[in-house]
Specification:
The chain is an alpha+beta fold. The protein contains 18 helices and 38 strands. The longest helix is centred in the C-terminal third of the chain and has 19 residues.
């Protein structure tokens, strides 16, 4: 790509993401976009394992997207071929285990394309990613994919968009035919028919200025509805429309663009990516209706020193600001930090300031990414998405900016891990490699966490789902050469307290010469769910010197992290250190840490410890004749059935189920329904474990909770 072709005006840039439920066809749609924009010369196929965007070995084997890939393509509007638009695309995963990838991608996008399956309509994961996009206020358009599939129903799918997502759809096209008779669409605004032949991979299509005879009435009906919807968002057009005058296509497009940017309307398109139909009008819609950095005008953040609000205009001559939204370890160049430049210009070889961490970083090289191919550039401007080589301390969610004008942009929040695995390296050299690989993988995925169990010598890795952990272990083996034994998946329980309690911790050891002396009084108070750990120093009159209060805080925190009842982390607790004493000679940090640990154990036991377990939101889709068996089986797993709905010949059952009851469910469900049902689950919240189950866990536990 020539240097000058990169420098398109800011209003000609689109930063978009392709988001959807697993298997709705995101990657296939992205592959078609790359083909039609001339980025690739042959179309990649997931089933063949040769897609451009799914480049990791595990992605090719499983046919799913695991890491969001970034790419840059150029598109010239088919109706208005002036200079090309630059489209930066991020293809995100659809699987709930990789929700962090979706979350961080949405944070840096200006617009989104939601891909839906024309037969399934809106599915659970589509709802989840839609809510994530709402959280970051990402304007979007919908593409109803798989119009050639058996059971494809365009208007049913649009109905589910309204009903389940609460969106206001603007139907832009009506499909000509459905299932195996689907050939193209009628554009409602222009009343033109777009017909794709079966040749040339859909790169050529016919545009006819007439509507098929049998669709004329329907087209007029839906066209009027569309004009009315668009006019309602713009006062000038509404006056015109109510006065009986029809706005021009140009006026309607302009008003619709503003309505999309203000989240008032969601334009709906249709097609089938696999059969190469309907993708070009979707690209035109990206250009016509999704915002450029110019439309969004500015980004807001806080000054790290004064905490006052700061604003940056999204232009290259403003001072630099941007967000590192993803870290990836590359076998050839080392650590890559994906970076969205919001304002200013990033220059390779320069120093920039990480305002989240308060450290300076050197920009080694700047790369423009195309999936896993790359091109080195000297400068990156506002509106671009690039990868930086050479940043040492920067992690996902950090803001990078100009040191003279610091700003911290809104951070990215990630869900808590709910499932864990024990992993033991086979040899001493594997032990060293394991430490290195875990450090690298936790940098990449913020939902992947690790802790060591000193009692058993095991390393416990935790994440959002079994698939995520399976892939992490696979990557350790392939990328870092770690041979390890892996235990069965375990539920990530948490402990918490029921009421306030106080206790004294005293550690005195006298053994010839200098002794040890630590003494403190601690109060533990339950906090609301999700508030986490808080330490309050309420020492008056110097009863404990400041440096030893620090040791008390550390001792308390470590004890809570290691758990008191069954060795699970204790959450949502406020610890107050309100009294104590010290010895001029014998007091030491270690003595106060041990005293704090004793006090925490005694206080939490008095306050009553509850075990919390992760509850999953589960959606089972089963042929209706097996509904009774599936519900019965779920009820035996302590499930709370929330409801069910009929769709075609299938029933969708919604339930909340404790994760602990769910191991091996895929196999069970297959045997109950002769392999015809499938399920989807995602973490919902934590809830107290029933007493009888806690007793069972206590009976099996080998946890001693000793204080060393």
């Amino acid at each position: 790509m020539a240097e000058q072709s990169r420098n398109v005006p800011l209003d000609k840039i689109r930063n978009i993401g392709i988001i959807a439920h697993i298997d709705a066809g995101k990657t296939t749609t992205t592959e078609r976009i790359l083909f039609y924009t001339g980025k690739t010369y042959k179309i990649g196929d997931i089933d063949e394992g040769n897609t451009q965007m799914d480049w990791m070995e595990q992605e090719k084997e499983r046919g799913i997207t695991i890491v969001s890939a970034a790419t840059t393509a150029f598109w010239t509007h088919s109706q208005n071929p002036t200079e090309p638009y630059r489209i930066n695309i991020i293809d995100t995963p659809g699987h709930v285990d990789f929700t962090a990838e979706v979350e961080r991608s949405l944070r840096v996008l200006d617009g989104g394309v939601t891909v839906l399956d024309a037969e399934e309509g809106v599915q659970s994961q589509s709802e989840t990613v839609w809510r994530q996009a709402d959280k970051y206020k990402v304007p979007r358009i919908c593409f109803v994919n798989k119009m050639d599939k058996l059971g494809a129903d365009f208007l049913y799918t649009v109905g589910t968009i309204e009903e389940r997502l609460g969106a206001n759809p603007a139907i832009m096209v009506l499909p000509i035919g459905a299932e195996n008779t689907y050939v193209g669409n009628v554009d409602l605004l222009t009343r033109q028919s777009y017909i794709w032949g079966s040749e040339e991979l859909g790169a050529k299509y016919d545009v006819k200025d007439e509507v098929p005879e049998d669709m004329k009435d329907k087209v007029e009906e839906y066209r009027n509805k569309l004009i009315e919807k668009i006019s309602e968002t713009d006062d000038t057009l509404l006056e015109k429309y109510l006065g009986g005058e029809e706005p021009t296509v140009e006026e309607l497009k302009k008003a619709l663009r503003q309505a999309v940017i203000d989240y008032k309307l969601v334009p709906i398109y249709a097609g089938t990516s696999l059969r190469n139909k309907g993708v070009q009008p979707l690209l035109d819609a990206v250009v016509d209706y999704l915002p450029s950095p110019v439309d969004l005008k500015e980004v807001k953040g806080l000054n790290p020193k004064t905490k006052a609000e700061e604003v940056r205009q999204l232009v290259p001559d403003e001072s630099l600001s941007g967000l590192a939204f993803k870290i990836q370890n590359d076998p050839h160049v080392g650590k890559l930090s994906y970076f969205r430049v919001y304002s200013g210009t990033l220059v390779s070889g320069s120093y920039i300031y990480n305002s989240t961490k308060g450290v300076k970083e050197r920009v080694g090289r700047i790369l423009l990414m195309h999936a896993n191919n790359r091109e080195e550039i000297k400068e990156a401007y506002a509106g671009e998405i690039v990868a930086i080589v050479g940043l040492k301390d920067t992690i996902t969610g950090d803001t990078l900016c100009d040191e003279a004008k610091p700003i911290v942009l809104e951070q990215i929040t990630f869900p808590e891990p709910v499932i864990s695995l024990a992993i033991e390296p086979k040899t001493k050299s594997d032990q060293e490699k394991l430490g290195f690989s875990i450090k690298r993988l936790t940098e990449e995925d913020p939902t992947f966490s690790v802790k060591s169990n000193h009692e058993t010598g095991q390393t416990i890795i935790s994440g959002i789902g079994e698939l995520q952990l399976e892939i992490m272990v696979d990557r350790m083996k392939r990328e870092f050469g770690v041979e390890a034994n892996v235990g069965a998946p375990m539920v990530a329980y948490k402990e918490t307290i029921e009421q306030e309690a106080e206790a004294e911790g005293k550690y005195i050891k006298q053994s010839g010469g200098r002794g040890q002396y630590g003494h403190c009084f601690l109060r533990v108070t339950p906090q609301p769910r999700g508030e986490g750990y808080v330490f309050v120093n309420a020492i008056k009159g110097g009863a404990i010197p400041a440096e030893f209060v620090k040791a008390v805080e550390k001792g308390a925190k470590e004890t809570l992290e290691n758990g008191v009842l069954l060795g699970y982390p204790m959450i949502d607790v406020m610890v107050t250190c309100y009294d104590g004493s010290y010895h001029d000679v014998d007091s030491s940090e270690i003595a106060f840490k041990i005293a704090a640990s004793q006090a925490i154990q005694a206080a939490t036991k008095k306050s009553g410890i509850t075990l919390l377990e992760p509850i999953m939101k589960v959606e089972v889709t089963t042929p209706s004749e097996y509904m009774g068996e599936v519900i019965g089986d779920l009820s035996s797993k302590r499930a709370q059935i929330l409801g069910s709905e009929e769709k075609n010949k299938a029933t969708i059952i919604l339930a909340m189920v404790p994760l602990a009851e769910f191991s091996g469910y895929a196999t069970q469900l297959r045997s109950l329904t002769q392999g015809r049902a499938h399920y989807y689950m995602e973490p919902s919240h934590y809830e107290a474990v029933p007493k009888n189950i806690v007793e069972g866990l206590l009976a099996k536990s080998t946890f001693t909770g000793r204080v060393e």
